[in-house]
Design brief:
Layout: E1 11-15, E2 18-23, E3 37-43, E4 51-55, E5 62-68, E6 80-81, E7 88-89, H1 107-114
Antiparallel strand pairs: 1-2, 1-7, 2-5, 3-4, 3-5, 4-6
Length: 116
Amino acid sequence: MTFNAMTEHYEEITVCGKPALFTSIRIKRDTIPDGLYAYDVRHDDECRGIPCEIAPFVMVNHWGTIILAEPLELPDDGRRYIDEDTDWNYAPLDGEDTANHKPCTTISDFMTAYAH
């Protein structure tokens, strides 16, 4: 089952140093606004809840969907294996320009904050 991106609420996280929205559900790709990029996240085979791979689509061990304002660089096979220490952070992007930033929970909030 997939859901409309525009009606869901998300957690703002940081993926590969970029701001992203995360949800544990599958999002219908045709409901993602132009200028945003969606990827599926696969969790580990032992079901410990560890995100381990980002790809355009994940069938088995789906952990969730991430949405970004810019595309991720993916290897030629289209799958990026996640380094937990550097690629995945459940906290919003931090830095000098984000001190007063309220985390985004909707696509509209995210587009206002990050879309170019």
